[in-house]
Amino acid sequence: MNEDEGPLIEDRTVGSTLQVTEACPVLAGRFFVFEGIDGSGKSTVSRLFADRLRSTGREVELTAEPTSTWLGDQVRRGNREAKSDFTETFLYIADRAEHTAQISKWTSEGRIVVCDRYVGSTLAYQGVTLRPHLGPGTLEWLKRVNEPVIIRPDATFLLRIDPSKAMARLEDRKGREKFEKVNFLKKVAALYDRLAEEDPSYIVVDAERPLDDVLGTVWSMVNKE
Ligand code: TYD
Q: Tens of pLDDT along 48-97?
């Protein structure tokens, strides 16, 4: 990022009259990812973050993995029907390969891309599910397989929450997925923490606070860069 450009986001109040022609271009083409365990609130926060960016007149693509394409459908089917842990892993990665091509196109057109889950989800979740098969080298293996089909996010916001609290948030939800089990999520959360320690593009956000605070933190981090 160019440090001479000043704040990346002008401090405009959401809902105020917008002067779109003045829209600051410095965030153009940036790629922001939200990661976290189920129940961390990342879908809501990513949507509100995208809305807030739009309210400053910017062109924003809000997207998610698994995608809403035919590949995402196969991922969801794989979650229900696959017998091998590797099947769903390769489905997530296939979905990502196509998604990355789409994201690259959007960023090259100057759009800001806000993505709910990306490669970090595979590293953290499949890092847990494949560990019994691949042992201590699991994370490295997953990184290598993902490498050719990803682009590097400008920032990955990790919404951090205690897995038991996240589970409590999900209690009301219908059709809980097999992943939404607290012991499993504890392992996933630990892997996310490790990823955040190792990768400087991760920004850890305390997601146990009220939604407005979480969003405000994310906004100020981008503003500050
Ligand atoms: P998500 O759509 O975030 O769940 P929901 O909309 O129900 O909140 O993700 C669905 C599940 O897929 C989630 O438990 C995490 C899992 N997942 C992986 O295991 N690996 C991946 O690479 C991705 C993208 C998701």
A: 999 999 999 999 999 999 999 999 999 999 999 999 999 999 999 999 99
Instruction: Report how far ligand 1's centroid is from the alpha carbon of 38 (Å).
Output: 7
- 20, pLDDT greater than 80: no
Q: What is the pTM of this model?
A: 0.86
CATH of domain 28-222: 3.40.50.300
Residues 6+ apart with CB under 8 A from 103: 31, 61, 63, 113, 115, 151
DSSP per-residue letters across 175-206: S--TT--HHHHHHHHHHHHHHHHH-TTEEEEE
Check whether the bond before 66 is cis (ω within 30° of 0): yes
The domain segmentation of the chain, as residue ranges, is: 28-222
Is-contact 158 196, C-beta < 8 A? Answer: yes
Residue 117: CB within 6 Å of ligand 1?
A: yes
Q: Which atom of ligand 1 is nearest to the CA of 126?
A: 19
Q: Which ligand 1 atom lies nearest to the CA of residue 180?
A: 14
Nearby residues of 150 by Cβ (< 8 Å), 6 or more positions away = 96, 100, 118, 119
Q: pLDDT category, 160, cuts 50, 70, 90?
A: very high
**Distance from C-alpha of 72 to C-alpha of 174, rounded to nearest angstrom:** 20
